[in-house]
C-alpha cells in the first residue's frame, strides 16, 4: 500500500525582527544588534538584491569586542558600540572603546578610542568574506559557500561569473591575506587618542556606492504637538519612505516606493500606490511618478485582461485563497489619480494619465461576476474589501471623468449606488448585536462569517470636489455598527487594529491576515472612522498605533502580533515582517492629515478643514505640507478648531 507523500515544506523566512536594517534603495544592510557580520543567516551588505559582504568580524588584540548597544541613526545608517579589555590597566574597566557606523551604501567607519593612561599598541584584524548570493536564494536557505578572495588595491575582491564585490580600507592595511580573508593593522594610540578605519564595499572595484539615488519628492513636513511623540513618528516615516524609493528601469526619472525590506525590495503595485496615496499631503510628485510607472505596465490589446495592471498573488491567510494584488492596484489607479488632482497634480499630467484610468474602469466593468460583485480571482471569493475598492474606484473615477469633461460619470455613480444595495443584501449578516459584514462570499453565494480588519476599507471613502468625502459602501446605521466593532476589544488590541477578531475560529495573533495588527489597515481605519465622525473609535485606534510606534522606535513594521495590551506590556514583533515598509512608513502622514481634516480642491482653488473633534493628541500643527504645489501649514487647537496658517495665495478656505 502506497503511503501518501507529505507536501513539500515551504522554506521559512529567516527572522529579522531583531536585526538593524539600513536602506537607501537599492542598497541594503542587515546587521545583528552586536554589529558583527558573522557570515551566517541573512546578515550582510546588499546592492540590487545581491549580497556583497556576508562576514565582517572585528578583533582587537585577538579578542572580539564586547557589544554594548546597537541602534538606528536613521533609515540609512546604524551605530554599534562596544568595548575591549586588553589588560593595559588593572581592574575590570574597559581599555578601548569601539564605535562602528555602518551605512546602507556599504561604508563602515570603525573608530577606536583609548581610555588608558599610557600609549598602547593594538593589533587590529578584520575578517571578511562573501558568497555573492541573491537575497531570494538566501531567504530560501540556499546561500552559497564563501568564495575565495583576492588581494586588490588595499583590500579584498571576490567574483563569480559576472558578479563581483570589492572591499577597500583606508588607511590601507599593513597586511591583506587573501587565503584567510583578513585585513590587519598595527595601531598605536596615545591616552585619549582615537583612530578610524573606513571600509568601503561595492560592486565596482572599490568605488563608493551612490546613496540617495532618487531625489526625494516628498516635502519635509514637521509636526508640533502636545504629544511629543508625533513629530519623531512623522519624521521617521518620511525618512523611511524616502529610503525605499527606487528608480523605474524603463524611465529612471520616475521613482516609486518599494513595498518593504528585506523581502519585497521591488515594485509591488498595490503597496506602491497605497503609499503614494497616503503621502499626497507631502506633494503629488511620488503619486504622479508611481502612476506613470504602473501605466507603462497596464495590459493593452484585446482579451479579458485589457486595462488591468498586473501584480503577483498575495497570501490572504488560512480562510481564503491568495488574492491578486493587480486587481487592487487596478482599482486604486483612478482613485489615486482623482485624489492627486484634488491635491494639486497639474492638469497636463492628469490628462496624460487619464486614458490609463479609463481603461482601469473599463476593466472593472468587464470583470464583474454575474451577481454584480468583483471576484478575486474569477471564479473565486467575492472579498468585502474588493467591493469597497471597486465602489471607491467608481465614485472617484466618476468625479475624475466629470472634472476632465469625459463621459460616463453618471453611469458610474449609478453603478456605485446599485452596488451599495447589493452589498447590503448579500454581505450584511444580521444578528442580535447589530450584525456584521461577511469577510467574503463564496462563489456559490455562501457568506464567510468572519470579522476581519478588511472591514476598515468599508469606511475608507475618498476625496471629492469641494472638500467633500465620497459616500461609503455602508449606510449610516451599518457604518455605526462597523465602527463599534472596530473599536471593541475583539478588534482593537490596544496597539492597533487586529486583522481578525480574537474570538473568530482560526485566530492567530501572529497571522498576517488572521489576527496580526497591520499598520496600513490600522491607519485606514483611523482615517475612515475620523472622516465618518466616529471620533471615539478613531481616537482609541490612533493612540494605540502611536503607542506601538513609540515602542518600535517610531519605525512601525508592516505587521506585528495582536496580543491584547496589558499594563506594562509591549507589542510583540512579527519575526518575518518587513521593517521599514512603505505603507507602514506612510501611516503617520495619513492619520495626521485625517486628524487635521485637510480636504483640498486645487482645481477649484479651495481647501476645507474638518478636524477631528476632541483633539485626541492635544494641539497639533502640521507644516511643510504641499497643497496646489505650494507650502501649506495648519493648526488644530485643543478644542478641535482648525486654522490654515500658510497656503498658496490662490487658495480660499472652503467649508
Structure notes:
- The chain folds into two domains: 22-202, Beta-galactosidase, Chain A, domain 5; 222-646, Glycosyltransferase.
- The radius of gyration is 27 Å and the shape is elongated.
- Helices cover 27% and strands 26% of the residues.
- With 655 residues, it is an alpha+beta fold.
- Residues 205-212 have low confidence and may be disordered.
Q: Brief overview, please?
A:
By secondary structure, the protein is α+β, with helices and mostly antiparallel strands. It is built from 13 helices and 35 strands. The chain folds into two domains: 22-202, Glycoside hydrolase, family 65, N-terminal domain (Beta-galactosidase, Chain A, domain 5), CATH 2.70.98; 222-646, Glycosyltransferase.
- Overall mean confidence score, pLDDT: 93
Task: List segments where confidence is low: pLDDT < 50 over at least 5 consecutive residues.
Answer: 205-212
User: Quick one: how many beta strands?
Assistant: 35
Number of H/I helices: 13
- Kindly provide the radius of gyration, computed on alpha-carbon positions and rounded to a whole number of angstroms: 27 Å
Percent of residues in beta strands: 25-35%
Summarize the topology.
Elements: E1 20-24, E2 27-31, E3 37-38, E4 44-47, E5 50-53, E6 55-60, E7 66-74, E8 77-84, E9 96-103, E10 107-114, E11 120-129, H1 135-139, E12 150-152, E13 155-160, E14 163-170, E15 175-177, E16 182-189, E17 194-202, E18 222-225, H2 230-243, E19 245-248, E20 251-257, H3 269-278, H4 285-295, E21 313-314, E22 323-324, H5 325-343, H6 347-367, E23 382-383, H7 384-403, H8 409-427, E24 428-429, E25 436-437, E26 440-441, E27 447-448, H9 476-487, E28 517-518, H10 519-532, H11 535-551, E29 559-560, H12 582-585, H13 587-596, E30 598-601, E31 606-609, E32 620-627, E33 630-636, E34 642-646, E35 652-653
Parallel strand pairs: 31-35
Antiparallel strand pairs: 1-2, 2-4, 3-6, 4-5, 6-11, 7-8, 8-9, 9-10, 10-17, 11-16, 12-13, 13-14, 14-17, 15-16, 18-32, 19-20, 21-22, 23-26, 24-25, 26-27, 28-29, 30-31, 32-33, 33-34
